[in-house]
């Protein structure tokens, strides 16, 4: 099949959740024998030099970029507030991207045009006008749910009011667009259930993030240290929110009992408030060249997530590497985890402290890592997932010739 993917950010480099998920799907589709074309927004938040994209990836995907400035502008935000439009979505609609999309659709015929994340569905009218392809949404999250949780967790009355407005307008757009698609790929069963309830007769399937098993072919031995680590893009608010909570509420208690214990904090766009912290035992690593190599140097991953939606790709990667993970119920949404079998669940300060102490047991830590890896191997095999995706495409297009 010929598939055009519209990406809200560049899938290369696969250095954070969204790009990792997009890159895994693109490479999986190519390996499955499909033709893939990529049109990506090159945003101010995740801007790359197109020349750095590997030549073979460029050749295979014909990837093209359009610059989109996502900087928050007070006047634009005020206009959207008064007009009741979703500010999140409207920022992705630009004349330059629309022009490039029309050019691509006029020069080639596709079986599938797939919007990676809700924001790219803002071009659904262009797709309908210039293409006969089936229009698919791959929903990485229930987007409005992220902002609903952020609003609920905020205690500043004015900020809470504005965040609630962002959540409501985003929810309205999300609910309106779902029935306008020809198919929806949700990344978790929970998200799929929501989509099915709100998408009319549009077919919905749940296909989780897939791992390239060759990359994780051999489990890396557990390091001797039991120090903690976290890795994630820190310009994503739920990550920053969770780390702030952990450092202010949990880490002082751990540091008091284990003063020589260390917490390694890695990720893109590390905010200045973290860089400038002078906290005993905290090691701010910042962006790392190889996330898997960083994970392999440490034993226990901490994911204190209290907002967000979808699936935590870094958790799956850590589990694939055989690492023990401590996270919240929200952090493990979409992953078939079992507490104290393949992961440790903690939702409160006391529970995080308890689980961090418990995971000092080397045998328990090792067994959880083994079980976690086995779960990923059975549930997140990218080759098998791409077979399911192909079957879904055939259902949507009414074709069985592929």
Gyration radius, rounded: 21 Å
- Please give the domain count: 2
Briefly note the CATH topology name of the largest domain. Answer: Rossmann fold
The CATH homology group name of the largest domain: Glycogen Phosphorylase B
Count all strands and give the number: 13
In short:
Helix content is 45%, strand content 15%. The chain is of the alpha/beta class. Helix 1 crosses helix 16, helix 7 (143-153) runs antiparallel to helix 8 and helix 13 (313-320) packs across helix 15 (362-379).
How would you sum up this structure, described in words?
45% of the residues lie in helices and 15% in strands. It is globular. The model has no long low-confidence stretch (mean pLDDT 89).
What are the main properties of this structure?
single chain; 402 residues; alpha/beta; Rossmann fold; seven-stranded parallel beta sheet; six-stranded parallel beta sheet
């Amino acid at each position: 099949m010929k598939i055009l993917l519209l990406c809200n950010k560049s899938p290369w480099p696969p250095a954070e959740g969204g790009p990792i998920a997009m890159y895994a799907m693109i490479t999986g589709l190519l390996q499955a024998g499909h033709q893939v074309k990529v049109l990506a927004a090159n945003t101010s938040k995740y801007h790359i030099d197109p020349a750095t994209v590997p030549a073979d990836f460029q050749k295979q995907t014909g990837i093209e970029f359009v610059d989109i400035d996502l900087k928050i502008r007070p006047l634009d935000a005020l206009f959207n507030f008064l007009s009741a439009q979703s500010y999140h979505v409207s920022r992705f609609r630009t004349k330059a991207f629309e022009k490039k999309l029309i050019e691509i659709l006029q020069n080639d015929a596709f079986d599938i045009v797939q919007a990676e994340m809700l924001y790219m569905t803002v071009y659904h009218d262009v797709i309908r006008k210039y293409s006969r392809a089936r229009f698919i949404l791959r929903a990485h999250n229930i987007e409005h749910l992220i902002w609903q949780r952020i609003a609920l967790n905020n205690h500043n009355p004015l900020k809470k009011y504005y965040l609630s407005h962002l959540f409501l307008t985003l929810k309205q757009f999300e609910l309106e667009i779902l029935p306008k698609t020809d198919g929806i790929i949700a990344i978790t069963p929970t998200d799929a259930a929501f989509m099915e309830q709100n998408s009319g007769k549009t077919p919905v399937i749940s296909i989780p993030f897939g791992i390239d098993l060759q990359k994780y072919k051999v489990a890396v031995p557990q390091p001797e240290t039991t120090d903690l680590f976290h890795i994630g893009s820190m310009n994503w608010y739920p990550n920053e929110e969770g780390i702030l909570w952990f450092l202010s509420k949990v880490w002082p208690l751990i540091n008091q009992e284990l003063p020589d214990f260390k917490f390694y904090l890695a990720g893109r766009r590390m905010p200045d408030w973290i860089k400038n912290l002078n906290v005993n035992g905290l090691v701010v690593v910042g962006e790392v060249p190889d996330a898997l190599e960083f994970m392999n140097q440490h034993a226990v991953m901490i994911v204190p997530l209290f907002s967000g939606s979808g699936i935590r790709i870094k958790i799956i990667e850590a589990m694939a590497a055989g690492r023990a993970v401590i996270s919240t119920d929200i952090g493990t949404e979409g992953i078939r985890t079992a507490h104290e079998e393949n992961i440790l669940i903690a939702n409160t300060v006391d529970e995080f402290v308890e689980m961090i102490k418990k995971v000092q047991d080397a045998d328990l830590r090792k067994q959880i890592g083994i079980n976690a890896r086995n779960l990923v191997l059975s549930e997140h095999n990218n080759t098998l997932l791409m077979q399911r995706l192909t079957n879904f495409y055939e259902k949507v297009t009414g074709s069985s010739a592929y």
